[in-house]
Specification:
mainly beta, Tick-borne Encephalitis virus Glycoprotein, domain 1, five-stranded mixed β-sheet, 31 strands, 14% helix, elongated
């Protein structure tokens, strides 16, 4: 009886030592979560009639489970743009040869096929671009994320938005006596330049001129003109644009122009640009450009990747354009402690954990991603070393108890 009690204590102490040893061994493991054994005492009882129950001596101890502690580890910067740390709750969802797994290890990279993987080659799962192309959004079916490193084709400018503030202090110009001319600065009040692109990706400079028209009303209207020049500075084409009208509060009430240029020297398709001045104002402030939008771009080569806090995997190109290639999904569980730990810093779901609930980072209580950083182990080494001493003492005490009991049994057997 006594030997079995001490054997149970020895086994429990051994489990404690094994758990602490595993924690200490993984003090430097990325995303590792420490564990602790949960002990219970063992008793047997016997009924002694109707008067009640008499307790017998204890029968030892047992380990009922080993709990995982999911407190966050410290986040450290790595400088690698593909490294991510989950700042808050949630797990990366991975496609492994054995099935779906979950991890807090955000040491990511691209494999030879352009798929986003973790350090062991498991595929990171998320939301990809819609069928037919376009930027990915955090919706639709969950799948792997593949990054295309091909160049992007040029897109001709077709819509140009220019929001400006026009000063009421500018003098009105009599356009009859002083007709607009690019080389005559007295024929216009203000000007602004931007870049437009043709169908082959060649860039040209578009200059928009603003003229406050004398006698055109109160407040006066502003006429616009445009000129497009090549990279060498030679004039490609010019013409009249839209007329801007404002109300008494200085808000734009009308103003849209068009720019049409055919017969481009490089053989590109004719330029057809709608120029909108939405958001432009009239006030006593100085002239300024408040906003500029351009739906065209030149051809661009793949230049790198950036991961946003919302999980967006954004491809960057040499022409300044960007494209969202995918959105990393995070999974959470009703009971994370029910997850079953496996090798390679992974867990798998179980009946105790419940099914994975997947959403984008920063939604549904999930944490956000921090790029260029990883989460370290949450093992407190000082605490583990103290626990190791206690567990070792318990182990030695049970070993000593077994030795004493063994000596007592031997003495008993030698009695005549």
């Amino acid at each position: 009886m006594t030997l079995s009690v001490e054997l149970s204590g020895l086994q429990s102490a051994q489990t404690d030592l094994d758990t602490i040893g595993n924690n200490v061994a993984n003090v430097g493991t990325t995303g590792f979560k420490s564990s602790r054994p949960n002990f219970t005492d063992l008793y047997s009882t016997s009924l002694l009639g109707a008067t009640g129950v008499k307790q017998s001596p204890g029968q030892g101890a047992a380990v009922t489970s080993v709990s995982q502690l999911f407190a966050e580890g410290s986040i450290s910067q790595t400088g690698n743009p593909l490294d991510i740390a989950i700042n808050g709750s949630g797990f990366l969802q991975l496609q492994t040869p054995s099935g779906i797994a979950f991890s807090r290890d955000g040491s990511l990279k691209l494999n030879a096929q352009g798929f986003l993987t973790n350090d062991t080659g498991s595929l990171v799962m998320g939301f990809g671009p819609p069928i037919g192309g376009g930027n990915a959004v955090a919706s639709g079916p969950l799948g792997t994320i593949q990054i295309s490193q091909s160049s992007i084709s040029p897109v001709a400018t077709s819509n140009l938005g220019l929001s400006v503030n026009l000063p009421t202090t500018d003098p009105a110009i009599n356009t009859t006596t002083t007709p607009f001319a690019v080389n005559d600065p007295t024929s216009y009040n203000e000007s602004s330049t931007t870049t437009v692109f043709d169908s082959l990706g060649a860039s040209r400079t578009l200059t928009t001129f603003f003229t406050q028209v004398s006698g055109s009303g109160s407040p006066p209207q502003w006429a616009t003109h445009w000129e497009v020049t090549s990279s060498s500075g030679s004039v490609v084409a010019s013409g009249a644009g839209g007329t801007l009208s404002f109300n008494s509060s200085g808000q734009l009430t009308a103003g849209t122009g068009s720019i049409n240029i055919a017969g481009l020297a490089n053989g590109a398709a004719p330029l057809s640009i709608t120029q909108k001045f939405t958001g432009s104002t009239l006030s006593n402030l100085a002239f300024g450009v408040d906003a500029l939008t351009n739906d065209g771009n030149g051809a661009g080569e793949f230049a790198g990747l950036q991961i946003g806090t919302d999980g967006s995997v954004i491809a960057q190109y040499s022409n300044g354009a960007t494209k969202t290639m995918g959105v990393i999904g995070l999974a959470n569980f009703v009971n994370p402690e029910g997850l079953i730990p496996t090798s390679n810093n992974n867990w798998v779901a179980s009946q105790d954990s419940g099914p994975a609930i997947t959403n984008a980072p920063g939604t549904a209580g999930l944490g956000q991603l921090e790029a260029g950083a990883i989460e370290g182990s949450n093992v407190d080494l000082s605490t583990q070393l103290v626990n190791l001493i206690v567990a070792q003492q318990a182990y030695q005490a049970n070993v000593q108890g077994i030795s004493v009991d063994q000596q007592d049994v031997q003495r008993l057997l030698t009695l005549q």
